Automatic annotation (TrEMBL):
Organism field: Sphingorhabdus contaminans
Family matches, as InterPro entries: 2Fe-2S_ferredoxin-like_sf, 2Fe-2S_ferredoxin-type, Adrenodoxin-like, Adrenodoxin_Fe-S_BS, Beta-grasp_dom_sf
Superkingdom classification of source: Bacteria
UniProt-recorded name of the protein: 2Fe-2S iron-sulfur cluster binding domain-containing protein
PROSITE patterns referenced in this protein's UniProt entry, alphabetically: 2FE2S_FER_2, ADX
Pfam family, one: Fer2
């Protein structure tokens, strides 16, 4: 198990444990974070966008061109933004810190 810290729009940190090999979006949704992810990993939307802490950004594999295109459409995107559906958790990401943008949406109204 590895630890992931989600920081919500109000600045509150929520640390969760996750198994390696699963996607960050799945972990976020299981932890009740307000990420919609309506395209189910097909990169047809940007509703699962997170802002990766600068210290962790370079530890992620580079975004593919389709992901970069989707991030251009994301509200509140930053230089270190990524789609959480495209981040698979590995042991190297133990301690990963991501921020949920204030502009995020959730179909459950969270």
């Amino acid at each position: 198990m590895i630890k992931i810290t989600f920081i919500n729009a109000e600045g509150e940190a929520h640390e969760v444990e996750a198994e390696t090999g699963i996607g960050l979006l799945e972990v976020a949704q299981g932890a009740g974070m307000p990420l919609e992810g309506t395209c189910e990993g097909q990169m047809a939307c940007s509703t699962c966008h997170v802002i990766v802490d600068k210290a962790w950004f370079d530890k992620l594999p580079p975004a593919v061109e389709d992901e970069e295109d989707m991030l251009d459409l994301a509200s509140g995107a930053r230089r270190t933004s990524r789609l959480s559906c495209q981040i698979l958790l590995t042991d190297e990401l133990d301690g990963l810190v991501v921020r949920i943008p204030a502009e995020s949406r959730n179909m459950q109204g969270v």
